């Protein structure tokens, strides 16, 4: 195989620079206006004030990292702060903005950033759950509502979307992204950027998006957070970089450098990544912020002392320093020592000022301070209504034997489990400004959706019993109190509730704080005490519906083999309970599809659908020894990418092609008839995958290239057509050239990445 040629990058960078140098000759009028304004402002700024613009302390309500900023007010007055994060509400924002506008010399308005990740006050499902809706309009809507609420609450910048591709559910932050697929992940990233930023940042409810974590954070070795990433360029370009690039193309105003090491240079100090690729090659025009103390962490990464690493980070293309103050305390000295240039500081400062200008902050520093808007926009009826719809769309039916779901609305049910009557966990991790007390739990939801249900409740188990895990979670605010009753007593109450009922609905999973940052796990089973409860309830012989809440794929082989039905609900947000209840009683027919593979065991990780074939692929049946397989497990996942059931059933015809050869500029069309053959109206996500059979480099066994979410009344059929063009067949080859290669291709259409019907076509012949 040919190796990627590093000189190729230099050529790309050189070309890109040449092009951008040519483009600079004709500066559009709007940019000229910005430039004139910023030139004039910068001509008045001291070096300290310029460096001050690059400083982002954390101050206010939340702690989202290991240290907190100090003396912020004083620094604001001295012009040593460019923005703050973790401060919101119109009052709190106004106070700090006033400080800068009345006390600082140049009155440069502050940015106000925050982790508005899956909603601001009205909380939507965790991002992994949003992605399982496969509904780009709903996802954009969730970001739109989040931005409306956040902007009404004083904020003008969110640290979202996270577009890190993740194939390792041990990594707790898989919860914050859109799963394993670069194509779907790209579309979702774009939808979120649009939702946050709107058509113009000057709109009153637009906020800056921030693409994170650039880059490859989701590939942290062993699923351990903050860990190293070492990856070939081909893999990066084809499998991990596309969502970042798509979000850049969508106009995201900022990018956050990731914590991880990339092939020997941590992202925050990686000039190839932040300047050559991001700016020169992709044309990114916004600013780059480090992650929380990401610059300081270059010291333990082993790149030098704080002064050295701060200079390296700036030179690499990091414009803003989150919390660490390495820039604030060392850049001036580095300038004097000629370790960095004035041009570097100017460039970073200019980027910060440009973002503020585009938001309209120079015209009105109090643009985001409006108590009236805060009162009407935040947690409005409409927002909650939309949150319920979005939560419903995110949930995935994994199993439904004997059509045990939906429940009869007058059924006699035992509602069991530590998450069955819980509010605390419903809004999930990274629901920063969310108030769990405003959330609806499952019990409450069921009473709303079907008041005639006959419910006997039993907690059955503590959410977490394991002392070591409990200690860690509670140290970080999980508030999990051990029940006064013993584990045996809790289980026996649950068993007797089940015995008295026709059906048991058991609500289990993780604590919300077992997902998100710094929550890597090596064991993805249900916690032992919860599993013991489930086994005991199952032993009653009653049908068992397992409702899961969790931040990541779990290993559920036993559950899949033993319980009657499984509904994956992630953490559904403020309206979680209503959404779950609507699904359980059949007011809504589930249609979510997995975006990350569910492994059978941790030993299979990393496991993802778009893998390579190997030279000795295993057919899953034979007993031949020398095959790429395990001797103690199937290669197959428990639930594949794209998988999810409905209360109805869908039948697919064989794909029909209008031609069997794609030519440059001449796409072909492939269609299938999908029929709703079951008893309910329902939605289906029709998925198109393509395999490039032979290539100049090895290619995945299949890749998602299109999907359509359709609604079919019972009995109804729809003709679904996809267009396949050359663009879809392109990939980065060994020279990192993005091109389609002539040859034969397989295409697959179906309801998930495993259950598909195949056809083939050729390109360029
Ligand atoms: C660290 C996290 O990695 C990042 O995602 C987040 O935006 C910042 N902390 C700010 O809270």
TrEMBL record:
Its main location: periplasm. The keyword Hydrolase applies. GO terms for molecular function: beta-glucosidase activity. It catalyses: Hydrolysis of terminal, non-reducing beta-D-glucosyl residues with release of beta-D-glucose. Gene3D superfamilies: Glycoside hydrolase family 3 C-terminal domain, Glycoside hydrolase, family 3, N-terminal domain, Immunoglobulins. SMART domains: Fn3_like. Its EC number is 3.2.1.21. One of its GO terms (biological process) is carbohydrate metabolic process. The keyword Membrane does not apply. It is found in: Periplasm. It holds the Pfam family Glyco_hydro_3. InterPro entries: Cellulose_deg_GH3, Fn3-like, GH, Glyco_hydro_3_C, Glyco_hydro_3_C_sf, Glyco_hydro_3_N, Glyco_hydro_3_N_sf, Ig-like_fold. Residues 1-21 form the signal peptide. Keywords: Glycosidase, Hydrolase, Periplasm, Signal. One of its GO terms (cellular component) is periplasmic space. Residues 684-753 form the Fibronectin type III-like domain. Belongs to the glycosyl hydrolase 3 family. This is Periplasmic beta-glucosidase. It comes from Pedobacter westerhofensis. The lineage of its organism: Bacteria, Pseudomonadati, Bacteroidota, Sphingobacteriia, Sphingobacteriales.
């Amino acid at each position: 195989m040919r190796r990627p040629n590093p000189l190729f990058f230099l050529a790309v960078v050189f070309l890109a620079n040449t092009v951008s140098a040519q483009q600079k000759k004709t500066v559009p009028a709007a940019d000229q206006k910005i430039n004139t304004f910023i030139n004039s402002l910068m001509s008045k700024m001291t070096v300290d004030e310029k460096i001050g613009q690059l400083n982002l302390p954390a101050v206010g309500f939340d702690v989202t990292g290991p240290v907190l900023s100090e003396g912020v007010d004083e620094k604001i007055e001295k012009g040593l702060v460019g923005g703050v994060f973790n401060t919101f509400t119109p009052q709190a924002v106004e106070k700090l903005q006033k400080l800068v506008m009345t006390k600082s010399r140049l009155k440069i308005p502050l940015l106000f950033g925050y982790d508005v990740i899956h909603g601001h006050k009205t909380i939507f499902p965790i991002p992994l759950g949003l992605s399982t809706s496969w509904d780009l309009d709903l996802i954009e809507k969730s970001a739109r509502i989040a931005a409306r609420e956040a902007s009404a609450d004083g904020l003008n910048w969110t640290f979202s979307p996270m577009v890190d591709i993740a194939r390792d559910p041990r990594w707790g932050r898989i919860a914050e992204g859109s799963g394993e697929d670069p194509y779907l992940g790209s579309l979702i990233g774009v939808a979120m950027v649009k939702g946050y930023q709107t058509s113009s940042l000057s709109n009153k409810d637009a906020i800056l998006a921030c693409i994170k974590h650039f880059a490859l954070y989701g590939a942290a070795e062993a699923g351990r957070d903050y860990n190293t990433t070492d990856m070939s360029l081909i893999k990066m370009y084809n499998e991990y970089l596309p969502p970042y690039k798509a979000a850049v193309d969508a106009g995201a105003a900022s990018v956050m450098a990731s914590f991880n090491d990339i092939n020997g240079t941590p992202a925050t100090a990686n000039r190839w990544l932040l300047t050559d690729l991001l700016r020169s090659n992709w044309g990114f025009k916004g600013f780059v912020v480090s992650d929380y103390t990401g610059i300081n962490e270059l010291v333990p990464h082993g790149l030098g002392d704080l002064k050295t690493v701060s200079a390296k980070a700036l030179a690499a293309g990091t414009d803003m320093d989150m919390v660490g103050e390495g820039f604030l305390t060392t850049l001036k000295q580095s300038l004097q020592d000629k370790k960095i240039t004035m041009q570097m500081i100017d460039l970073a400062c200019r980027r910060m000022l440009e973002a503020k200008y585009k938001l309209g902050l120079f015209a009105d520093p109090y643009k985001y301070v409006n108590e009236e808007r805060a009162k009407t926009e935040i947690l409005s009826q409409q927002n909650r209504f939309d949150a319920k719809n979005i939560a419903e769309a995110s949930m995935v039916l994994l199993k439904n034997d004997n059509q045990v779901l939906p429940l009869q609305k007058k059924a006699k049910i035992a509602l069991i489990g530590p998450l069955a009557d819980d509010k605390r966990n419903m809004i999930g991790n990274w629901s920063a400004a969310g108030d769990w007390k405003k959330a609806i739990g499952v019990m409450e939801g069921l009473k709303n959706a079907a008041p005639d249900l006959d419910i006997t409740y039993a907690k059955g188990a503590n959410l977490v019993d394991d002392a070591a895990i409990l200690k860690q979670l509670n140290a970080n605010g999980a508030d999990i109190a051990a029940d006064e009753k013993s584990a045996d007593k809790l289980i026996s109450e649950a068993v007797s509730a089940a015995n008295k009922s026709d059906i048991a609905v058991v609500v289990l999973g993780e604590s919300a704080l077992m997902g998100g940052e710094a929550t890597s796990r090596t064991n993805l089973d249900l916690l032992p005490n919860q599993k013991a409860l489930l086994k005991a309830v199952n032993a009653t012989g009653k049908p068992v519906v397992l409702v899961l809440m969790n931040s990541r794929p779990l290993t559920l082989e036993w559950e899949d083999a033993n319980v009657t039905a499984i509904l994956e609900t992630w953490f559904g947000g403020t309206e979680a309970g209503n959404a779950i209840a609507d699904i359980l009683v059949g007011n809504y027919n589930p249609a979510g599809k997995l975006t990350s593979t569910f492994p059978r065991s941790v030993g299979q990780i990393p496991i993802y659908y778009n893998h390579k074939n190997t030279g000795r692929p295993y057919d899953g049946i034979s007993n031949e020894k020398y095959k790429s397989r395990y001797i103690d497990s199937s290669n197959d996942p428990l639930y594949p990418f794209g998988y999810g059931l409905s209360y109805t059933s869908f039948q697919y015809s064989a794909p029909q092609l209008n031609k069997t050869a794609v030519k440059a500029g001449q796409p072909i069309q492939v269609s299938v008839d999908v029929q709703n053959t079951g008893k309910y109206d329902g939605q289906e996500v029709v998925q198109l995958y393509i395999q490039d059979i032979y290539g100049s480099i090895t290619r995945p066994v299949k890749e998602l290239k299109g999907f359509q979410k359709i609604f079919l009344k019972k009995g109804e059929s729809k003709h679904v057509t996809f267009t396949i063009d050359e663009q879809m067949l392109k990939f980065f080859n060994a020279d990192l050239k993005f091109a389609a290669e002539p040859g034969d291709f397989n295409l697959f259409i179906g309801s998930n990445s495993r259950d598909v019907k195949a056809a083939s076509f050729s390109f360029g012949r």
